[in-house]
Amino acid sequence: MNKPTLTTDPVALGAADFFARSKAKLGFDVPAGLYDPNIIPASGDPGTDKMLEIVAREQPVRPAAVLIAVVDHPEPTILLTQRAAHLNDHAGQIAFPGGKIDVTDSSPLDAALREAEEEVGLSRDFVEPLGYLDLYGTAFGFRILPTVAKVRPGFSLTINHSEVDDAFEVPLSFLMNPVNHQVHSKEFRGMERFYYAMPFAERYIWGATAGMLRVLYERIYSS
C-alpha cells in the first residue's frame, strides 16, 4: 500500500503571505460530500480511502465542522485544544475547536464559530473567516469541514472543562513545515492505512487533526 506523498519542500512563511494565499485559494461553497454518503472524501492514501468507503456503508454520515484559528501574531500561531480526559470519544487528544453540525446551525461556518465559543470562549468578534478547507473523512463516520480563519490577537479564553482540558497555540511555521510531518501507519481490517503525526514539545498532534493540517499545507503552499 502506498504512503501519502510526503514532500519536504520548505515554505516561505509569514502572516500576510499566509492570509493572502488563503483568501485567494479558499471559498465558502459547501461540498456535497458533507452530507452525501455516496461521495467519499479523497485522502490521498488508498488504504484510508478504502476504509472511508467501508465506514460510509456501515455508519450514518456525521457532518461536523472545526475552526482552524490562525492567530495574527507577528509570528502567527494556530489555536488547538486538548480534549477532556473523561470523554468517551478521543479523550485527551489534540483537536481543533469544533464538533457536530446541529440543525440550528445556519452553515458549517456557523457551527465552527459556535463550537469555538462553547469550548474555549473564543468570541466570534475576533474571527475573520477566510474559507473552507477540503472535506475530511474519519473512521468514525465524521465528515469534517474545516473553516480557516484569521483571528485578531487580544481575545481571552474561558475553557469549558466538560469538553476540553486545555487550549494552546502552536507556531504556524512549525505546523506548515513538512519536515515536521511524520507518517505513521496502523491496520484497519487487514489493510494498512497511513496517517500524519506532528509531535510538538509534550503535545502529540496526530490523526485527523494532523491530517487536516497537512491538507492545509498542501492547499495553501503546494497547490
From TrEMBL:
Nudix hydrolase domain segment(s): 61-196
Presence of keyword Metal-binding: yes
Molecular function GO labels: coenzyme A diphosphatase activity; metal ion binding
Keyword Magnesium on entry: yes
Matches recorded under Gene3D superfamilies: Nucleoside Triphosphate Pyrophosphohydrolase
Cofactors demanded by this protein: Mg(2+); Mn(2+)
Key words of the record: Hydrolase, Magnesium, Manganese, Metal-binding
Record-linked InterPro entries: CoAse, NUDIX_hydrolase-like_dom_sf, NUDIX_hydrolase_dom
UniProt-listed PROSITE patterns: NUDIX (PS51462)
Protein name as it appears in the record: NUDIX hydrolase
Organism: Bradyrhizobium nanningense
